[in-house]
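Need the bound structure for D-malate, inputs here:
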Amino acid sequence: MPTVDVNGVRIAYQDSGGSGTPVVFVHGFPLSAEMWDPQIEVLDDRIRSITVDLRGFGNSDAPDDRSAYSMSDFAADVKGVVDEAGVERAVLCGLSMGGYVCFEFWRRYSPSVAGLVLADTRAEADPPEAIEKRTSQQQQVAERGIDELADALTNALLSATTAGGKPDVVKRVRELMDQPAAGYIGALEAMKNRPDSSSDLTGITVPCLVIVGEEDGLTPPEMSRKIHEHIGGSRLAVIPEAGHLSNLEDPQAFNGALIDFLERF
Ligand code: MLT
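Answer from helper R.:
Posting the output first, comments after.
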């Protein structure tokens, strides 16, 4: 697997190669680039896809120091990969925390952005009670490891339909959450401190697709509707019976919306 050094941190990525505007996939928390397998399997024949393991996850380094994690560090990880791959402009596709990274990437590196796919995410920063919750989750992981939190998140993120009727997806999501404790603690730190992106929405001028699972309890459809209403010309796709991990819960519907959107590039 190729890697690139970003300020002393080794960032792993996969590049399918091929021509056309690449799509760079940015994973959510606490997952890795492998969460995009159901998209890559289908899209690789049609587009150049690049998946990134943010610092702390997958095959990338996981620094122990939580100050090594911020949205700007994550955006720099993605930019390091984009530059290493020789890409001038790409469509960025981020789910949840990956969406927070896309907003930061847009603020810092907008000339490199050809389009955005914002899935199951929100523009707002964390309110005080969410910051408090993340701090206790950091403590939990530091003291007892990742398992309790990973089990709880597996239950919380999926829709009732997925949890009750798709055991293979539930199992896969839990496997994907087997990530280093340092990555959990670092990403929670980055999310706690992320800026509010609400005021950036109207300035987003590239084509944008907003996707959300109808039963997303963590970033419910109203949040995606708000993003869609503020980004001129954006499209909104609501996926029935899917929860927060819509790309894994209903890959067919997610891929359909994505393929439709990518036709314009
Ligand atoms: C994610 O799916 O990336 C996280 O659940 C986002 C968050 O905790 O805000």
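Comments: Residues 128-144 form the longest helix (17 residues). Residues 21 and 90 are 6 Å apart (CA to CA).
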